[in-house]
């Protein structure tokens, strides 16, 4: 009758590690990859300018990975994000450059258009039960074509300064030190304090409610690594130009989405929907509406990514966003999301995106050809998913 | 006449349950032999033993087929000997043609290249045998269930069948289709095909069968000869249900309070086949403190009735009235039903009731998340407390509410589903087969819980295929058959025989 004999809430280290191998593995993999490239590139990898570049180059992937995680957790996929991103960038260019519209009216219009695109696709997926693969594959073609049409096959640019700062701007030093940048250092210090505080509070809670918790040693080591890395990055950024604006938007969005997915009713319902749609529905979850909203959200984030991407290149090209959806989806799966929906974490998707980003960046610095780069990225994705499946099989 | 099949003292155990206990069955060549019994009596298990789904060695006893001792290790072994089962759920591929289906796995081909000429030619011959004039290239999808059933039989005939077993062949068929099928059975018998039919429908059995073996609680009770002697339906019904109330039910004191829910003239059509009416003019009511049962066989429409009421979770073109506490109410979706104080505990907890990969805690709160949230933000501490409370009060036997639900036993899983619905604080609970697949001890606890609920002025509607359970627990019992409520009995008037005869005579 009893399913397991009573056991202490605190699990022993070995069984805990076995259960959470994936999460630690992701962190270890990111560090190992960075270490590898640091050596292979004779220290270029972790130079201040390169770290800054890493953020600038990958911000739009990370932002879309947040939305993609939600879509994948809900049990769907969105193949159109690359095209939508390109289309919205093109729309911004046409509005600002060709039509002389102001930046501050253009941005909201673009975000709304992104949301409408998401709604148009989500409608068929949610209410007509057409497989998302098909609907968004269609969207991918449609919006690729619409970008071409909108730009008439040309590149449109450049953008005014106030649009460019969306992506290439830096937060000024509020302390007036200049170099090292005080804001960056302060932000780093605040971030690690918050992480430590949240971690300790979580542990206290888990103890109170008898939730099995990470062994203390792991907690200390993991946090030491994460906080050390954050402080290191903050310091490096401070010696260059400070905090990039995109890093701020990215970090804020990451925190907001992590909070929504883990601590809110709507977040919980998305996991329930992906875990067992029928059970979720019979438990009073409006599954159709939730699926619809997941796609609307994805559209808005893809639009935002499109603005950032266009601002960084300072021009909108018909090729913008080409095949980006694959990087975004890969990031989410490397981050541990389940292919069948119902599981996956925001922080995993972000780390997954960083792993892809570091691979791109490191291999480019090393001068590895685009041919090998693709092969290696493909194999990394396959390896991550095989690792997942293997792990699951071993546990059951 | 010679014996074709002899199954001697078959005993089959599953962990914790004896599904078959010393069952014997003999079938003579050329006869139609019926097997009768309640749901869960062990009919299907017996057929699975025979066909090799449960391989030799996994059960005790012997099978002799055609004079030889049979040791089937897989269904392919029994099929090679000519034993073919046509299951209740048809095993046809809907988007392949009739001909392709008939020769699926047995393709008329040379070196892997299909011989379409022979395939179609032979299909035509086989279809003629079962009385179909369909083009062999017709997609199975476009045929009705009745014709699909006949295609299954044609498929069996293509394989040199010695013993044809039909498991509830008319369950999904209309009156006319059933007649056609039964006529075909008699025709096949004339051609010398031995058949076993598993069915609840006594009138049909009496029409075609030569002998009846009744199985009850995993044991063979009797074999009645229809050809030799006069057998009445009452005799069969008594053998099917005639057992003492061996299980104990907690005593309850019936008390009917205010009217909680009244349903009248409820009509529902099948979600995919808009021309098939699943529920016809059904009506029932439940008062505070009452436990009301709905009896009926599988496929009678009980689950469909419950789910269509529960926020239109089943069916289409739904019509009828629901009154909650005397007020006309429309339950347009599940949230509306929950708000109105309704809860539905599904019969299929694994696929419709639980998030199997999630914890007890997260399953417990799923149907009422707003209650543990302020402005949409969850309070996981409160959630853990609530789940822990239900774990204790429902005696869910696990060390903590952080356990993954998929790893729990059936009884504990069922309690988690109940906890989820209790947390929505319902007035009326519809429990669909609440004790299916759980052990005796947990059953008793769930009965106790049901009595607690009614003592707290909840109305309980209990759907069950186990008649003793309904008789032991309910204050009133509605009897349902083929989508209609065919009778209502008070606890005093109800007996297994009366319920069974209401079902079989309607």
UniProtKB/TrEMBL annotation, chain A:
<feature type="transmembrane region" description="Helical">
    <location>
        <begin position="243"/>
        <end position="260"/>
    </location>
</feature>
<feature type="transmembrane region" description="Helical">
    <location>
        <begin position="21"/>
        <end position="40"/>
    </location>
</feature>
<feature type="transmembrane region" description="Helical">
    <location>
        <begin position="220"/>
        <end position="237"/>
    </location>
</feature>
<protein>
    <recommendedName>
        <fullName>Xylose transport system permease protein XylH</fullName>
    </recommendedName>
</protein>
<dbReference type="GO" id="GO:0005886">
    <property type="term" value="C:plasma membrane"/>
</dbReference>
<dbReference type="GO" id="GO:0022857">
    <property type="term" value="F:transmembrane transporter activity"/>
</dbReference>
<keyword id="KW-0812">Transmembrane</keyword>
<feature type="transmembrane region" description="Helical">
    <location>
        <begin position="182"/>
        <end position="200"/>
    </location>
</feature>
<feature type="transmembrane region" description="Helical">
    <location>
        <begin position="346"/>
        <end position="366"/>
    </location>
</feature>
<keyword id="KW-0813">Transport</keyword>
<feature type="transmembrane region" description="Helical">
    <location>
        <begin position="290"/>
        <end position="310"/>
    </location>
</feature>
<keyword id="KW-1003">Cell membrane</keyword>
<feature type="transmembrane region" description="Helical">
    <location>
        <begin position="133"/>
        <end position="151"/>
    </location>
</feature>
<keyword id="KW-0472">Membrane</keyword>
<feature type="transmembrane region" description="Helical">
    <location>
        <begin position="81"/>
        <end position="99"/>
    </location>
</feature>
<feature type="transmembrane region" description="Helical">
    <location>
        <begin position="55"/>
        <end position="74"/>
    </location>
</feature>
<keyword id="KW-0997">Cell inner membrane</keyword>
<dbReference type="InterPro" id="IPR001851">
    <property type="entry name" value="ABC_transp_permease"/>
</dbReference>
<keyword id="KW-0762">Sugar transport</keyword>
<dbReference type="Pfam" id="PF02653">
    <property type="entry name" value="BPD_transp_2"/>
</dbReference>
<feature type="transmembrane region" description="Helical">
    <location>
        <begin position="105"/>
        <end position="126"/>
    </location>
</feature>
<comment type="function">
    <text>Part of the binding-protein-dependent transport system for D-xylose. Probably responsible for the translocation of the substrate across the membrane.</text>
</comment>
TrEMBL record, chain B:
<keyword id="KW-0067">ATP-binding</keyword>
<dbReference type="GO" id="GO:0016887">
    <property type="term" value="F:ATP hydrolysis activity"/>
</dbReference>
<dbReference type="GO" id="GO:0005886">
    <property type="term" value="C:plasma membrane"/>
</dbReference>
<protein>
    <submittedName>
        <fullName>Multiple monosaccharide ABC transporter ATP-binding protein</fullName>
    </submittedName>
</protein>
<dbReference type="InterPro" id="IPR053466">
    <property type="entry name" value="L-arabinose_ABC_transporter"/>
</dbReference>
<feature type="domain" description="ABC transporter">
    <location>
        <begin position="263"/>
        <end position="503"/>
    </location>
</feature>
<dbReference type="InterPro" id="IPR027417">
    <property type="entry name" value="P-loop_NTPase"/>
</dbReference>
<dbReference type="InterPro" id="IPR017871">
    <property type="entry name" value="ABC_transporter-like_CS"/>
</dbReference>
<feature type="domain" description="ABC transporter">
    <location>
        <begin position="5"/>
        <end position="242"/>
    </location>
</feature>
<keyword id="KW-1003">Cell membrane</keyword>
<keyword id="KW-0547">Nucleotide-binding</keyword>
<keyword id="KW-0677">Repeat</keyword>
<dbReference type="Pfam" id="PF00005">
    <property type="entry name" value="ABC_tran"/>
</dbReference>
<dbReference type="InterPro" id="IPR003593">
    <property type="entry name" value="AAA+_ATPase"/>
</dbReference>
<dbReference type="GO" id="GO:0005524">
    <property type="term" value="F:ATP binding"/>
</dbReference>
<keyword id="KW-0472">Membrane</keyword>
<keyword id="KW-0762">Sugar transport</keyword>
<keyword id="KW-0813">Transport</keyword>
<dbReference type="InterPro" id="IPR003439">
    <property type="entry name" value="ABC_transporter-like_ATP-bd"/>
</dbReference>
<dbReference type="InterPro" id="IPR050107">
    <property type="entry name" value="ABC_carbohydrate_import_ATPase"/>
</dbReference>
<keyword id="KW-1278">Translocase</keyword>
